[in-house]
Design brief:
Elements: E1 2-7, H1 26-31, E2 36-39, H2 49-58, E3 64-68, H3 71-76, H4 83-91, E4 101-107, H5 116-125, E5 132-135, H6 144-153, E6 156-157, E7 159-161, E8 176-181, H7 194-208, E9 212-217, H8 224-240
Parallel strand pairs: 1-2, 1-9, 2-3, 3-4, 4-5, 5-6, 7-8, 8-9
Helix pairs in contact: 5-6, 7-8
Amino acid sequence: MIRVGTSGWTYRPWRGDFYPRGVRDELTHLSERLDTVEVNGTFYGPRKESDYLRWRDVTPEGFVFAVKGPREVTHSRRLREVSGVLDEFYRSGVLELGPKLGPVLWQIPASLRYDEALISDFLDALPDSTRHAFEVRHDSFYNDTLVDQLTARGVALVVADNPGVWPCLAARTTDFTYLRLHGDTELYTSRYTDTALDKWATLITEWHTHGDVYAYLDNTMNGAAPWDAVRLAERTRRTTD
């Protein structure tokens, strides 16, 4: 499958624009136009089991949630001694999404340099109950050993498009590809041009020959993300029909 969605869905600039006035449930509305979404709120703190159950129930069959791992793991503990926090995260209700649960995203802070032993220990701590995607933001992760580690554990290396702020690595390390589009020319803000979306649609189609693709528009701040996601989804459908 090729799935295209957005990073989160609750943003004020989307209201009265992507979300028509009077929409009662924004997630339901988004799920009628797109087939996946990243849950970003889990990065900032735990959600209740009832949240996951509601999200599961208000979205159509086949919809998929990627869930962002907590920043206590990635940013506070910086991947060290995380087993207890991982257990709490998975006990919070995330598995209640059932077949609608996609990969768990681990976004590594830009200040964290590559450390082979640290990455090895972290990957070993990840549970096998879900698929995982690993997004890095320091140049030291341009490293063949990292690719080998992720491949051995079946963890996707996130392709993170951005306007030159962080590295954009691309390596096939497992049977799915995870793409995050953070903004064409301005981080979190700028729209993607037709030319840029055509390029990404072509790459997504190529990656799809090797497995599933999850693509998320993260240019959310001024309302570009949902419209760009719809445009990208339309392009990927045309290339695979």
